[in-house]
Amino acid sequence: MPFVEDDVLSGVHHSITKALSLGKSDSTSYRYACHVMTRLPVQQSEQITKHIQELKKLMQEDSTGAFVLPRETVVLLERLHKDSFAADAEVVLEIILSSPQSHTVMSSEFISRLCTSFLGLNSEALIHWFLHDGRGTSTARMSRWKSYTTYARNNTDLGLLSKTLLPMISGADTSDPGMLEEALILLTELAHLHVDLVDKCGIKPDQLLEVIWRLGRLMDFTVLLALFRALMTQDSHQLVRALQTSVWQQVTQTSADSIPIQQLYDLFDCTHCFKMPTDVFVQDSDAALKVILPGALPKELTIVDPLGVLSHMIPKTMENFTASLTFDLQGLSTYFRICYVLKRSGNHYSDRIQMNLLIAEALLQAKRQHPAANMVTDNNLEKLDQSGLFSNWENQTSTFIDHAATILVEGGSDKESTNSMFEALGCASAVTTLHWYETSVFYRILAKAREREISAAEAETVYDLCSKDLFFHVACALALNNALFNVKGFSFQRNKIASDLTGTIQEVKSATALVKLNSHLSQDVERTTAIPRQRLILLVKNLLGYSTVHELSAFLAYEILTLLLHVLPDVASEYGSFWQSAIDVLHKVLQLDTGDISSQYSALKLAAWLWTSYESNDDLSEFWINAQPRTEILIAQSFMSIASRPRDNQASTVCSLIASRLMRKVRTSAIDHSMSTSLSALISDSAEHVQLTAYVVLSKLVDREREETILSSALAKEYEEISAAFPPELLSIALDPAIEEHDIYDHFGPLNTSQRGYFMAWVMIFRFFKDTPLRMRVKLISDLDEADLIEPLLAVIFAIMKLLDDVPADVNPYSKTELDLELVVQEGNEMLAYAAHLYYACLTHVPALVRAWWIDCKDRRLSTAVEQLTVKHYSLTLIQHDVQTLQSEQSKSVLKDDNLTVRISNGGRDIFTTYEIDEQNMEMAIRLPPNYPLRRVAVEGIQRVGVKDTVWRAWLFGSQAVLTAQNGSVLDAISLFQRNVSLHFEGVAECNICFSVLSVQDKSLPSKKCQTCKNLFHSSCLFKWFKSSSQSRCPLCRTSFAF
Fold first, then answer.
1. CB 781 within 8 A of CB 967
2. Where in the sequence is the signal peptide annotated (predicted)?
3. Least crowded by CB within 10 Å, which of 80, 114, 728, 802?
């Protein structure tokens, strides 16, 4: 404002005062007042101060906050600061900051100028406004934050910055990521400036870390990692210890909100947590490990793990132990979070830590081998194993295994190290699930020592150190058995336990003794038990005597039978009734229904040994043969029981393998009808060995049923009385190929079990046709035709052979006539091997159905390809088979007639049958086409003697019908011709409908006689006549036919 006189200034001051008095209700007046004050000369400082106080009073009276602060106030503030009215400027600043509209009246540019101008005043109100005032938009707040940090960086006012740093972060708005990131970056930069945050700035580490973790979960991890690295540059042991402790706590505190373990490892590494006291790691990992272990281990470990029997020794009180687990977002429980960071750090921790890491590896391995078993309460273990977080542990843990093995092997030279190692491994710990896993690791270490060819003396030292721990004692006896076997102390212990078991048997005490004795016996099948023979016999008799009169738990039964398997070979030459007792105990255990497969497993192994050894001992042979029917029934029942249960672990698979091998030896007399039905379902079982066993046993049953049906069919007078039929279970499997187009084109190698089951069912169906008479064969083929099963089978076969492809599959390497199921599984293309064989079976057993399909086939390309396939790979084989059959003993037994001769020419395609009658020959020719049997066989009458033409043609038609319509063989056609001729000349009357002696359909003689005209008819011919004429009258005399 230009210079003016005092009286003018006086008027100005009066107008300012008046305008301010009106400002509460008149914003225009207020703006005027502020505008005029900005133009007052510097010399008017007293008046300016007075007006500022009036402005302050105006704001204080505005208790409602309704007063709108104009921008002119900000302009006034800048003028006051510029002219060094410091005190007045602070008052105006206080007015601005206390106004509810302070965030709206200042632009970002002004905020920046405000920060630069006034932060140096160390105004608490201004600092609070910059850092903690939550009013305004996110952009406005962020502008204040950045202005503050820009000032801090440019002016390095560390005292002011450090004084407000922690409150600034504590008050950060967690909904604003930008402000959070700015806060952490500022803290990082402060740490990089080497400011002593703890001692000089007074920041408490715990309070600081609480804020960091709260904000860090919401931020980009790179910002958090940079902050930690910066804080680690602080020359403060207190802060470093706090950082390490805090990071470790984050590792051990597991929840869905936990920081991912890979990121925590980076923090673990950068804060040098591995330098923390080892006791912390041991204590926390031990505690976390106990939580994830179940109270009891699955009993199937008995079968698949050398230490599995020890799982039975864990007290029953532990079985009720349960624990609730929490997991992070990756599915890791606390124990595996700990293991991850410790293992990845690669540092050499204490032996106990290494032990816990090995247990973690053992848990993952156990989950792989026994996915459905209760090996660990951590349900996420399988998913965790698949994640790859714990891959390649075997390589990383081998170093400690080597280290521990070295200490144990050299235990005699450094007892302190040996004792320390035993303590770390958990020797003499309480008998719990955890101790079982400790023992499992100990066994691995001993196995490594065994690989190094540990000496007997070294092994004895380790053995003695284990004497106070049952689990370690058994593990040592098993792992170092070869080295210890002839050691004096080991032999003494073995004989002492054997001697104790010849006395009174007490279940719990004796079970423990049996576990120890079994571990002390040789694990080498070629070596004897090394127990004196007389004591061994007493031991066997005592155990068998106890077992026959007392109830046996599954565990005790397993241990007794396991011991018998060890010692019976050593007494195999002994005679006595104890062999009968052994068989009785075997039967008793096979009937145990405890749900524990370990006893069933040992019983099946004992049955296998007795079955292979009984011939070497006369007493055993007599007892075994007498008990064999009962034994086979129990084995069959055991197999069906095992096969019906889920086989989702290694133990059940091993048990089913042994049961399968024994089941294949069981005779059909031990298998009842209900079991036969269940076996048919097992043709599609998911386990290959169960599937093959079902096939082998069913094959025997099919053979038995076929022989019985052949016998009953021979006795049946009428065709309808023939009882031949396929099992419905096989037909249901044959209805579903379980093969898609992609299976055919993507497949090479073994089939899946459902596909193999389909092919096996068809192999079994065709087995019913083997050596069956024509009448029975006609009945079976009729069933297949009615069920319409052959056409879908042929479609599958030809699809597998890829007949419509430019290059069809090559079936030449595969056997057509025979099928070895054990071998075919190992062949290059199992599906093609089955297809090649089944097409041969179709052409052999149901040629008429194949021919009908081929004739009706509308796809010319396919029918041509099928014909080419048949001519190239099958026709000649089939012709040769028919020729060989005509030349076989079977033919001679069927065609027992000195008047009949058969002559073969043209490579087997022309077969001439001659029947001599009164030195004259009656001759029929059968001519097989090149594409046999797709085209009809031609049957020609070469020479007729002594019969009417109608009868002669009926005989020829009958033979041709056998070959073309009834799926008969050349031998069947010749046999029909021979019987018609011989019966005719013996005086047997022909049927007056078909003019043949034997019925073409069922090969029966004419048996239905008209009571009026006395003519004879075949039942089948008469039935057709009645059906076609719709009346029950004699075809000749037309009178009502009376049966």
1. yes
2. none
3. 728
Which residue spans within 723-786 are E strands per DSSP? none
What is the model's pLDDT at position 579? Answer: 95
* pTM recorded for the entire structure: 0.71
Nearest in space to 290 (alpha carbons), one of 438, 507, 494, 505: 438
Q: What angle do CA 788, 794, 799 make, to 5 degrees?
A: 135
| 334 and 447 together in one domain | yes
C-alpha span between 901 and 981 (Å, rounded): 13
AA letter at 446: L
Strands 920-927 and 938-943: antiparallel
- Closest by CA to 527, choosing from 557, 491, 500, is 491
List the alpha helices (DSSP H) in 253-350. 261-270, 278-292, 301-304, 334-345
Domain count of the chain?
6
Q: How many CA atoms lie within 13 A of 734 on its CB side?
A: 24
Element (H, E) at 903: strand 900-905
Q: Which of 258-267, 370-379, 555-564, 645-654 has the lowest mean pLDDT?
A: 370-379
Residue 459 sits in the same domain as residue 323: yes
Instruction: Give CA–CA dist 888/970, Å, rounded.
Output: 13
User: Both 873 and 905 in a single domain?
Assistant: no
Strand partners, 925: 912, 940
Of 677, 841, 669, 709, whose CA–CA distance to 765 is shortest? 841
What pLDDT score does 849 carry? 92
**How far is the C-alpha of 256 from the C-alpha of 252, rounded, in Å?**
13
Cα 888 off chain centre by:
53
Q: Which letter does DSSP use for residue 911 in this model?
A: E
Q: Which domain holds residue 914?
A: 888-985
Question: Is 803 in contact with 729 (CB distance < 8 Å)?
Answer: no
Q: Are 106 and 92 in contact (CB under 8 A)?
A: no
CA separation, residue 49 to residues 19, 55, 60, 952 (Å) = 16, 10, 16, 147
CA distance from start to end of the chain: 146
The domain boundary, picked from 216, 242, 273, lies at 273
